[in-house]
Amino acid sequence: MRVIAGSAKSLKLKTIEGNDTRPTQDRIKETLFNMIQYDVAGCSFLDLFGGSGGIGIEALSRGAGEACFVEKSRRAVRCIRENLAHTHLTERAQVMEMEVSEALRRLEQQGKEFDYIFMDPPYKKGFEEAVLRQLDQLSVCGEDTMVIVESSLDTEISDSWFQNLHVIRVKEYKTNKHTFLKKS
């Protein structure tokens, strides 16, 4: 896994050994950032279920003003911190070692609002619906926030789950997909 573009272009990132995380493939990461590239510079980026930090680090490398990584695994948090140091992007990053729902509550209390919220939870465990329902009600996800969910191809995300969030686009790949949502 490597950084595709920007200030840390071509730097290799560490990943966590074992099956606890699934880093987004470089090809899929590149496609995702090609879709959002014109809005990343200066943005605030929230990377939920951060894993090794590859997506948030890509955003920082491409000029995001700040990125917040949320991950509960101590090993994964260590990996995120090492990757941030290796790419020289630590000063624009915040790493929260905790459950996503708790981190969202804390960020809400701090009055944070993000331009992008990316989440890549463990597949087939129902995290997508639970986290999206929480985001639907929080101001960390504002009207201009783009929420991007990476999930298995067979994971359904339905507008009927929400009062405010709506699916605006789905991009399918061979093994997974990205679902884009916004409040309206």
UniProtKB/TrEMBL annotation:
Record keywords, A-Z: Methyltransferase, Transferase
GO molecular function: methyltransferase activity; nucleic acid binding
GO biological process, alphabetically ordered: rRNA methylation
PROSITE patterns linked to this entry: N6_MTASE
Keyword Transferase: yes
Top-rank taxon, per record: Bacteria
One family name in Pfam for this protein: Cons_hypoth95
CDD domains: AdoMet_MTases
Key word Cell membrane present: no
NCBIfam families reported in the protein's UniProt record: 16S rRNA (guanine(966)-N(2))-methyltransferase RsmD (TIGR00095)
Protein name stated in the entry: rRNA methyltransferase
Organism (species): Anaerostipes butyraticus
